[in-house]
């Protein structure tokens, strides 16, 4: 007879897999391969294996990305995010999982699919400036927003003492995917990432549209997930945003909400690490 702890573990794992996989379409979890782009237990695989930190980092990165007018307009013109924000988040999460853990041919095929989609994403900003999803500098911002967000959330909720050499390796590994997607420049260390983040900050703009997308991201609650979980993770993501980004998005960080959100997020992160480690 299964132990109560085994039943709890299976329930937790099942719920997480249902959130990140389209069960109705028969989508199975991404298989972990020893012939992936990255070795087992290497920094990128450790960071991207953290379910809760990746959710926090993913929301943070999306909010940062929407401050880039070219990235924002691409979403507004070529996405059904208003009707299917959860689907968009789920597809992004699966792309990260496939390129990090799956067999290298599957990873490269996923990258090529995204490149084909990006080739069709073009248009003009409200002021008439042309944009394209294949623009290397725009892709550089999308990448550095993701990489710094995932790492910051991992260090906050899983491994605060992560050595700098492992952080540098993380950026060097993630650069493989970024370059295959056409990003340029691409950082290969934490110092380079911080420098690039500061350099590209000048490309960002506050707007009502960016705040609208941000509000939609924060309000999304996967089916079956308690509202309290969504609020905690959203608050944790806001907490990790740079002050300038919170100001541009019109977000606040009240201490009365942040402290319990941090505690709840850390508890969820530890619980899911236990469930998947077993």
From TrEMBL:
InterPro entries: MPAB/Lcp_cat_dom
Pfam families: MPAB_Lcp_cat (PF09995)
Molecular function as annotated in GO: oxidoreductase activity
Domain ER-bound oxygenase mpaB/mpaB'/Rubber oxygenase catalytic: 47-268
PANTHER family associated with the record: BLR2777 PROTEIN, ER-BOUND OXYGENASE MPAB_MPAB'_RUBBER OXYGENASE CATALYTIC DOMAIN-CONTAINING PROTEIN
Protein name (Swiss-Prot/TrEMBL): DUF2236 domain-containing protein
Lineage: Bacteria, Pseudomonadati, Pseudomonadota, Alphaproteobacteria, Sphingomonadales
């Amino acid at each position: 007879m299964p132990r109560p702890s085994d039943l709890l573990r299976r329930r937790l794992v099942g719920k997480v897999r249902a959130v990140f996989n389209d069960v109705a379409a028969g989508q199975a979890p991404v298989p972990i391969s020893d012939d992936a782009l990255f070795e087992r237990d290497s920094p990128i695989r450790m960071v991207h294996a953290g379910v809760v930190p990746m959710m926090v980092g993913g929301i943070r990165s999306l909010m940062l990305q929407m401050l880039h007018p070219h990235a924002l307009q691409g979403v507004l013109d070529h996405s059904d995010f208003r009707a299917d924000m959860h689907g968009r988040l789920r597809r992004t999460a699966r792309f990260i999982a496939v390129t990090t853990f799956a067999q290298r041919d599957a990873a490269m095929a996923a990258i090529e699919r995204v490149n084909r989609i990006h080739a069709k994403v073009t248009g003009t900003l409200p002021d008439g400036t042309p944009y394209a999803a294949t623009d290397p500098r725009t892709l550089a911002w999308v990448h550095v927003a993701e990489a710094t967000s995932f790492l910051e959330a991992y260090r906050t909720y899983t491994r605060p003492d992560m050595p700098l050499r492992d952080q540098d390796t993380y950026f060097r590994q993630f650069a493989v995917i970024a370059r295959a997607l056409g990003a340029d420049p691409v950082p290969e260390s934490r110092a380079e990432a911080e420098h690039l983040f500061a350099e590209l900050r000048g490309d960002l703009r506050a707007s009502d549209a960016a705040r609208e997308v941000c509000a939609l991201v924060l309000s999304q609650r996967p089916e079956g997930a308690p509202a309290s979980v969504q609020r905690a993770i959203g608050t944790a993501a806001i907490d990790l945003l740079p002050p300038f980004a919170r100001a541009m998005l019109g977000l606040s960080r009240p201490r009365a909400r942040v402290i319990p959100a941090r505690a709840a997020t850390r508890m969820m992160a530890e619980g899911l690490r236990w469930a998947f480690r077993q």
